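From the methods appendix. Each design record in this collection lists the tokenized structure first, followed by the designed amino acid sequence. Records were kept in a plain field format so they could be parsed without special tools. The example shown here is representative of the layout used throughout.

RECORD:
FOLD TOKENS (378 positions):
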């Protein structure tokens, strides 16, 4: 394996198996940093290439498409596995006799334990570095991919013990060039962290929404009044049920251990209410507030950040239209806009959501110039 700088300046051959939102965004970013990289993708459709891959070829993001693993992959220098986790593991078995020893093999899955176990079993530990770009979107597919999806996102790398340090250094440096923030973790540690900050919260959010639904009466007053804070803290309950079913099943041990601890903490809170233990309740809210305030706000984490602002507007005809027109005339796209009726825990009458941070920052500057009072969530 050459050193990072010499390889980075050369024309690497980089392959993709699975080419949706994440794979497409990585490919776009790679082409941006070095147009000489030769990018190709595998298409399991034997008769006609998929529309996504054909579009990537037309865009110049991909140099070629192959429908057989024996073509291009034996010359591959870096291979991204971007298919679902179980599919990636199946591909590993087919790829083992084809890949050259110097090819870096990586994936983009949010659970690392099972693919590391498969790599160990197949004897691919000298070239595998697990990967997890902590970014995403509610939209899917290559057509919704963009290079800036990786910008300022944590990108976890979980190298095996056997992989050469030169390979790790290379991929670490490449991830930085993509605009992401690389972090090295052990695979087991990664799965424990993601279980705590993403997997368990998704279960909690889903069950909390189901709990309120089950408690609601025929008039559905709870649903009617559940805007504002409740909808914010449970928004991740709207995530893909199929994806989260698979995540839970592939990281079940870590999730269950932490979920049991969380259930025990709820029991403690319940006992504090029984005992009217004001000191415990105060400490619970105080320490939570302090820890949350210390969480970084700029970098992208596992749970997708909302780019939103709240502002006060007068109750008159055309008030919302005026703001929407002002933003549109300055090429600022709005993802969502609406009046907040339940403002018990919120400031601002109007909520505006944007597609990215740059649009949000531009909107804040613009609206303040027109003397609107803006509230940004932290």
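DESIGN:
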């Amino acid at each position: 394996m050459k050193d990072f700088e010499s390889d980075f300046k050369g024309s690497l051959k980089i392959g993709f198996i699975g080419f949706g939102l994440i794979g497409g965004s990585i490919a776009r970013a790679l082409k941006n940093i070095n147009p000489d990289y030769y990018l190709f993708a595998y298409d399991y459709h034997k008769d006609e290439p998929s529309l996504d891959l054909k579009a990537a070829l037309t865009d110049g993001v991909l140099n070629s498409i192959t429908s057989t693993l024996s073509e291009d992959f034996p010359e591959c220098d870096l291979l991204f596995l971007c298919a679902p986790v179980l599919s990636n593991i199946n591909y590993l078995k087919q790829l083992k006799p084809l890949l050259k020893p110097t090819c870096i093999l990586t994936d983009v899955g949010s659970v690392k334990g099972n693919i590391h176990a498969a790599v160990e079993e197949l004897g691919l530990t000298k070239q595998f570095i697990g990967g997890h770009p902590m970014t995403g979107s509610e939209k899917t597919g290559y057509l919704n991919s963009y290079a800036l999806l990786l910008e300022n996102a944590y990108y976890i790398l979980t190298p095996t013990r056997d992989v050469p340090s030169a390979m790790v250094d290379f991929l670490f440096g490449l991830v930085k060039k993509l605009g992401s923030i690389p972090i090295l973790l052990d695979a087991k540690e990664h799965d424990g962290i993601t279980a705590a900050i993403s997997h368990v919260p998704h279960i909690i959010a889903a069950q909390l929404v189901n709990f309120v639904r089950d408690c609601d009466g025929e008039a559905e007053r709870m649903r009617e009044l559940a805007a504002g804070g409740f909808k914010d803290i449970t928004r991740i309950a709207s995530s893909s049920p199929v994806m989260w079913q698979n995540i839970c099943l592939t990281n079940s041990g870590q999730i269950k251990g932490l979920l049991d601890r969380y259930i025990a903490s709820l029991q403690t809170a319940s006992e504090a209410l029984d005992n009217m233990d004001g000191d415990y309740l105060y400490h619970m809210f105080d320490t939570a507030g302090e820890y949350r305030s210390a969480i970084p706000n700029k970098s992208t984490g596992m749970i997708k950040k909302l780019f939103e602002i709240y502002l006060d507007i007068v109750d008159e005809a055309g008030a919302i239209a005026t703001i929407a027109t002002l933003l549109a005339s300055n090429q600022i796209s709005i993802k969502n806009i609406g009046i907040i009726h339940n403002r018990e825990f919120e400031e601002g009458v109007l909520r505006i959501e944007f597609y990215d941070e740059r649009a949000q920052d531009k909107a804040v500057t613009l609206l303040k110039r027109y003397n609107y009072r803006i509230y940004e969530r932290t």
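APPENDIX NOTE: The domain at 191-293 is CATH 1.10.3660.10 (6-phosphogluconate dehydrogenase C-terminal fold).
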